[in-house]
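Lab channel / #folding
Pinned by the channel admin:
"Please post every new chain as: sequence first, then the structure tokens as a reply. Keep commentary short and put observations after the output so the thread stays searchable."

First post following the new format, from NK:
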Amino acid sequence: MGTTQLESVPEPKYWHLKTVLSEALDSEFSVGEILPNERDLAARFGVARATLRQALEQLELEGRLQRRRGVGTTVAPPRVGVAVGTEQHVWPGTPGDDWQLADCTLAAPPAAVADVLETGRDEPVHIVRRSRMTHGQPLAAELLYIPRSSVPDLSAIDAPAPVARARAVLRELERLELEGQDRSVELGSARADDAKELDRLPGAPVLLVTTRFVAEGRTVALSLATYRADTCRLTFGDSGGVEIDHTPERRAS
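Reply from TO:
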């Protein structure tokens, strides 16, 4: 592995270093491989360790690297495609669903959620909590709000355990004929509870995906999912198979 010295460039040195490091990740390292220590990397590229840290932090923010306590800095796996424009409308929990059930509670939702569900702001609804993993790492956390009127026969089901009750709620929801669903996506910052569940620092960039499920001419469920922005990419359409390398080309000296 040869030595690469950085020359004078118009952009900040750490940003140019990030581009050079990104090229090295593509050509010299495999997913999960541990990078050399900071001293060796700084010596290879002829930069101060402070400059190197800035570049590594940027690559981590972009999802190219993962810093794992007790392991070191490793090459991150490819981003997971999250379909937000598919024409296929399905209930949460149907076969092929990658989400894992965590628990289910009965509580009053946030005011904005109650307004969308058209329930009273103090009226308890079923709140199903789910999570999604990729390559052994947390990818997303979801809160699914379901009014009791959407699953009126649930009381006849004996499901005292949180996960069993969550499964029962979703099973009862599937009895309705799904008429449609719509989604919106926006960039946000991880709140303290989201950050803990997603193994990120509070304030880390996240993608907030809101999904409204419609049946019987009304909103019967609302999903608020928080995705790690560094581990996923949004796809539109049914295939979602188009991928383009957006890594900037290294400028010729």
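NK: Residues 133 and 188 are 20 Å apart (CA to CA).
TO: also worth noting, The radius of gyration is 22 Å.
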